[in-house]
Design goal:
CATH superfamily of one domain in chain A: MetI-like
Shape of chain B: globular
InterPro entries (chain A): BPD_transp_1_N, MetI-like, MetI-like_sf
Pfam families (chain A): BPD_transp_1, BPD_transp_1_N
CATH architecture of one domain in chain A: Orthogonal Bundle
Shape of chain A: globular
Structural class of chain B: alpha/beta
Strand content of chain B: 15-25%
Number of strands of chain A: 2
Helix content of chain A: over 70%
CATH class of one domain in chain A: Mainly Alpha
Family (chain A): Belongs to the binding-protein-dependent transport system permease family.
Order of helices and strands of chain A: HHHHHHHEEHHHHHH
CATH class of one domain in chain B: Alpha Beta
Radius of gyration of chain A: 24 Å
Number of helices of chain B: 20
Radius of gyration of chain B: 26 Å
Subcellular location (chain A): Cell membrane
Helix content of chain B: 25-40%
Oligomer: heterodimer
Main location (chain A): membrane
Strand order of the largest sheet of chain B: 6-7-8-3-9-10
Largest sheet of chain A: 2 strands, antiparallel
Strand content of chain A: under 5%
Chain lengths: 326, 575
């Protein structure tokens, strides 16, 4: 087990190194950073001095090494537009995005799994058919449209929930502002979380349904029934666990994309998270932010994949290292 | 008073168009401590009877008529919940495939304790002790230690023992075993049958054994019921039914079982079966494309000469080469096959017989050794043209007729593909003519060409495989368990077809099987394999009459056979 995890971590490091290389190359090839930083009146001498100060005249390898060294210490340079350290900018907005993603993942799992199990077991009931067709709507409408619909219905017409922002936040330590501890914060997260999680919920539901249908046909389920096990134990102990491996794969990848690509939802609900920061960075060619965002996204995916790999082994004993067959 | 009593059972599967009757007016009964065999070919409705008893008919199946009584109590009309409480507690069930009958993600202990505590009022630790005791009874060594393991850590035979332990958890009165040994090797099969017989006597259980294997019936059962297309055609004491069958179906079924004791020239067909392949248009092979232009040079000495072939599979990879671990699938295997003969390879699963077939046909590259085919070294062939010519001369027929044909291609395209690929015919109309002739010759008829594989039964699909193999005009056929997925009656037809083709075309065959009786009927010479080693090679007759190697003797003695019954009779007469 230890060997397995350390091998996975080594592979994750290789991936991160390659991503760092790509994000470093952004600086070299996407426009000249000096042009972005100075005005038109700057003389060539001043520009050269700035180059020297920023280390842009050093050999590429030295620059890359410096970049990686900085990244390890969370130093991603200064934003061109805000003239502030990128790490601070992202750090201030990361909690908002993480809380939103967490809430929407919980929503997707808590609803998606039971709905998947139900529709898998009761193929022909009208409730299953309703779940399936409603979820089809959920999966085919674009996120921004669902968001706008929600705002129109729940915020404008019914006036139950706020249409934008995070509500009141409470500071936890110096790094984390949470919206989970105030009523207005909790109210504010409902609509964006559902909007963001709807697609994942549908996906999880359909995946579990398909897997359940498959597993229920297997011999060991038939044998479990022949031993007289009650439905509850057949469904939730023997069947559901056997559907988990593909579900975990997809859920892991989806969780990554929820965190990394919450941009649209954040824009619709004016959620002060990383997505909006990233959009502004793209509009203003703020390369340090884009590069750091790239690294962060890659890190999230690699980290989740590591967790998924470990979960596989926890769930499926056949993947554990062979201790010798009998 | 019999424990299980089935009266006039009719099971139907209504579909949108009509109603399919899977079993019709079946009357059976079993006493405590006795074993009833239900035998028949696929589609006979034997599993349906078992599923009806335990109340697990697949949707939309239902009991249309008849009653099932368990120890005097009627159970076929019980509510779902009371029926569930009966399952496992009073009626146990054993399934065919031990590899898939257990939940792969839970330990043996979890599954045993869960079932025991469901039926018996025991605490967790008492249930565990009971589970260990059960594992010990079914013959699992070190039960204390092994109970904590997962199913994949057990071998097939051991898993079937666990399945039996699970079925016997709550001391049921009736146990239904649906093909309990079909997926197992002969030696394991013999052990499991013995175990079942012992448990049946010790625990005074009434057992219903559903099987297609006459040998199992002969070895194990007291009474036997023969089913054909949903009807019970014959029912009586095993000795009497097997020894002097009355119904014509039973007679032909018993006749079709390959005999391990005598070699016959052709297999007796089950003539009772409708729709058995009648020879369609017979082709005069000598003037036909198939026989013509077989421009193979005759060879001096053996056609195939295999020397010291070794094959290893990587089981554990490592960066340092000495840390890598290998499984030796073939260990210096040497034999030769002469032109026109059929060479048999026999052995249990994992003995390396299929690996050998794949090495010869070039699907695997051996780690060492040489194989000469018609004087040409096979293992080091590099030139693409030579490889192709070699592939054309050798064709393979696989075991599973369901997965060896591309389900999205029409039969015509399946059979034509090798002809076109090897450019053996010049025009499309010529190709079509050849395909038609081939399909006629293997007994399918021209009409088959336009259909897809799923429209055929297992035996017919195997005929398609044979037609496809013949399409390159090969001189060497490798048959890897060609009939082990088929019913006996179909098996007889396919083996006869292979024999005929061999006579007509002068084919040389490598015939791989685990079934000694089939080997005896098909092969001139036979090699016995175990753990990747070739233990003994001899003329087939000699091998059966006076085996030299201890393992061969063991294999021969373990065969459940019709012979066993006559032996049983003999013993009783002597006593």
């Amino acid at each position: 087990m230890f060997g397995f995890i350390s091998r996975r971590i080594a592979m994750a490091l290789v991936v991160m190194f390659v991503v760092a290389l790509i994000s470093f190359l952004l600086f070299r090839f996407v426009g000249d950073p000096v042009n972005q930083m100075v005005g038109i009146e700057t003389t060539p001498e001043q520009r050269e001095a700035l180059r020297q100060r920023l280390g842009l005249n050093d050999p590429v390898l030295v620059q890359f090494f410096r970049y990686v060294l900085g990244a390890i210490q969370f130093d991603f340079g200064n934003s061109y537009q805000f003239k502030q350290p990128v790490a601070d900018l992202i750090g201030r907005r990361l909690p908002a995005t993480l809380e939103l993603s967490f809430a929407s993942a919980i929503f997707a799992l808590l609803l998606g799994i039971p709905m998947g199990v139900y529709t898998g077991l009761n193929r022909d009931s009208w409730l299953s058919k309703m779940f399936l067709s409603v979820s089809l709507v959920g999966i085919s409408l674009p996120t921004f449209f669902i968001g706008i619909l929600f705002i129109f219905f729940f915020s404008v017409t019914l006036q139950w929930l706020p249409s934008f922002g995070r509500g009141e936040v409470v500071a936890l330590g110096s790094f984390w502002d949470t919206g989970f501890l105030t009523i207005s914060g909790l109210k504010a997260i409902i609509l964006p979380a559902i909007t963001l999680g709807l697609y994942q919920m549908t996906l999880i539901m359909r995946l579990i349904r398909a897997e359940m249908l498959e597993v229920m046909r297997t011999d060991h389920i038939k044998f479990a029934r022949a031993r007289g096990l009650p439905n509850r134990s057949v469904y939730y102990i023997h069947a559901l666990k056997n559907t988990m491996v593909p579900v975990i794969t997809i859920t892991g990848l989806q969780l990554g994309s929820i965190i990394a690509f919450a941009i649209i939802t954040e824009t619709v609900f004016q959620w002060p998270g990383m997505g909006i920061l990233f959009l502004q960075a793209v509009q203003n060619v703020d390369i340090p932010i884009m590069a750091a965002y790239l690294l962060l996204t890659a890190f999230i995916f690699v980290f989740i994949n590591l967790i998924v790999d470990i979960l596989y082994v926890v769930i499926d004993p056949r993947l554990r290292t062979e201790r010798g067959r009998a | 008073m019999s424990i299980l009593d089935i009266r006039g059972l009719t099971v139907q599967f209504p579909s949108r168009k009509d109603v399919f009757t899977a079993s019709r007016n079946v009357n059976l009964s079993v006493d405590a401590g006795k074993i009833l065999g239900v035998v028949g070919e696929s589609g006979a409705g034997k599993s349906t009877v078992g599923n009806a008893v335990i109340g697990l008919l697949e949707n939309p199946g239902r009991i249309a008529e008849g009653e099932i009584h368990l120890d005097g109590q009627r159970i076929d009309n019980l509510a779902a919940e009371s029926m569930r409480k009966l399952r496992g507690k009073r009626i146990g069930m054993i399934f065919q495939d031990p590899l898939t009958s257990l939940d792969p993600l839970q330990t043996i202990e979890f599954q045993l304790v869960e079932t025991i505590r469901l039926h018996l009022p025991l605490s967790k630790s008492e249930a565990r002790a009971h589970a260990v005791d059960l594992l010990d009874q079914v013959g699992i060594p070190n039960p204390e230690e092994r109970i904590a393991q997962y199913p994949h850590q057990f071998s097939g035979g051991m898993r079937q023992r666990v399945v039996i332990a699970l079925a016997l958890c709550a001391d049921p009165e009736v146990v239904i075993a649906d093909e309990p040994t079909t997926a197992l090797d002969v030696s394991i099969q013999a052990q499991i049958l013995k175990l079942m017989k012992r448990l049946c006597e010790e625990k005074n259980v009434a057992m219903v054994v559903i099987t297609h294997d006459m040998g199992v019936i002969a070895d194990l059962t007291d009474h036997v019921a023969v089913m054909y297309r949903g009807d019970l055609v014959e029912y009586g004491e095993s000795k009497q039914v097997l020894g002097a069958p009355k119904h014509p179906y039973t007679q032909s079924l018993i006749a079709a079982v390959p005999r391990p004791d005598v070699k016959v020239h052709r297999f007796p067909q089950v003539d009772y079966i409708e729709g058995s392949a009648k020879p369609f248009k017979q082709i005069d092979i000598s003037t036909h494309w198939l026989g013509k232009a077989r421009d193979y040079k005759s060879v001096d000495g053996p056609l195939l000469d295999v020397k010291d072939i070794t094959m290893k599979f990587l089981t554990k990879d490592a960066w340092i080469s000495k840390n890598r671990q290998y499984f030796t699938a073939l260990d210096k295997v040497s034999f030769d096959i002469h032109a026109g003969e059929t060479f048999g390879l026999v052995g249990e699963s994992g003995s390396g017989k299929s690996t050998m077939a794949r090495v010869i046909t070039g699907l695997y590259h051996p780690a060492g050794g040489t194989a000469h085919f018609a004087g040409q070294e096979l293992t080091s062939l590099k030139d693409k043209k030579q490889v192709l010519s070699m592939r054309r001369q050798m064709q393979m027929i696989f075991q599973d007729p369901f997965s060896s044909l591309n389900s999205r291609m029409r039969v015509r395209d399946i059979v034509a593909e090798p002809i076109k690929f090897h450019k053996l015919a010049s025009t499309n109309s010529e190709v079509n003519q050849i395909v038609d002739d081939l399909l006629e010759h293997v007994g399918l008829g021209v009409a088959a060409a336009a259909k897809f594989p799923h429209e055929f039964s297992g035996g017919q699909r195997q005929r398609i495989s044979i037609a496809r193999a013949l399409a390159t005009r090969p001189r060497f056929l490798v048959c890897d368990e060609p009939t082990s997925a088929l019913d006996v009656s179909i098996q007889a037809q396919i083996l006869n077809l292979l024999k005929d083709l061999q006579d007509e075309l002068g084919l040389t065959m490598l015939f791989i099987s685990h079934d000694l009786a089939v080997i005896r009927q098909m092969c001139n010479r036979t090699g016995v394999m175990r753990h990747g080693q070739l233990l003994e090679v001899a003329d087939t007759e000699e091998l059966f009459d006076s085996p030299k190697h201890a393992y061969t003797k063991e294999l021969l003695s373990l065969m459940p056979s019709m012979d066993g019954l006559s032996r049983q009779n003999l013993e009783e007469e002597l006593a």
